[in-house]
Amino acid sequence: MDALYTAVATANGREGRAVSSDGQIDLPLGFPVALGGNGRGTNPEQLFAAGYAACFASAMGSVARQEKLDVSDVSVTAEVSIGKDTDGGFGLSVIMRAELPEHLEGEVGRTLLEKTHAYCPYSKATRGNIPVELVIE
Q1: pTM of the full structure
Q2: Which residue of 12, 16, 67, 137 is 20 to 30 Å from 43, comparing CA positions?
Q3: CB within 8 A of 3, min separation 6: which ones?
Q4: Distance (Å, rounded) from C-alpha 131 to C-alpha 137?
Q5: 3-state SS of 17-58?
Q6: What digits encode the pLDDT tens for the residues 34-61?
């Protein structure tokens, strides 16, 4: 792959900071309350959810242009869950929710979502590694 852009960020644990090389991200990190933390700070799952949702929405725009579909009123929400896996460690799962307007209901919307999932770089990176459920709302 010929890289068109490389993002660089540094973190020092779940209760430290995450900082991007350009300074656009400089966030305190913390465990969520559900995992025993105080909830003061973001966490890797939130960052992954935001990145995946943004990438998926952008990918949907690219796919929609090829299909001559209007996705200007679409919003995408990624729900990233962390839990114990069968190996005694932790794993992730994702529910990708797409709010589609009426003109994209039914088979047209389902096909758009599946083509987007095949096209999206985050989906490609996670394929076969974590379960991703596609939901139309």
Answers
A1: 0.93
A2: 137
A3: none
A4: 19
A5: EEEECCCCCEEEECCCHHHCCCCCCECHHHHHHHHHHHHHHH
A6: 999 898 999 999 999 999 999 999 999 9
